[in-house]
Fold this protein.
Amino acid sequence: MNDAWVDRVSGGLGMLLAAGYIAAAQSIEDSLLADAVGAAGVPTGVGVVLWTASLFLFLKSFKSKAGMLQEAEDGPTEGGSPHPHAMALGLLLILAAYVFLLPLLGYVVSVGLLVGAAAWFAGARRYTTLLGCAVLAGPFLWLVFDWTLEIRLPVGLWPMWLGK
């Protein structure tokens, strides 16, 4: 069994799974408290992203064999991790810390720490860029979700700590 065949089967099964997921999401009934997007909006979006990724995997399986052989001869590209499982575990630990800190520190601070830690873990070492992304990510995403989309985000224990 070659890689192209595995990608073709995985992509096809992924598209079928995504289509079923989208159909199930569309059958979610809206409650009387539903907003303009409705209860099915986010699950449908996730299904569309899954279907699109599966389609690209399926199409990738038809890439010319000569191109694949040339890539294999060139060797791995620079920047890849020699220990991908350790990288995945490290990112999982960063995400677990985010989930733990979210109710304590609130969304804005937790997301800033998450972005900073993930960027540093991925190899970003330029101090100004790293700090700038970490400081601006939380407020920017808060503006998008809380202010623009009116999706309330956790504030953490700040009101209690500040006496409000």
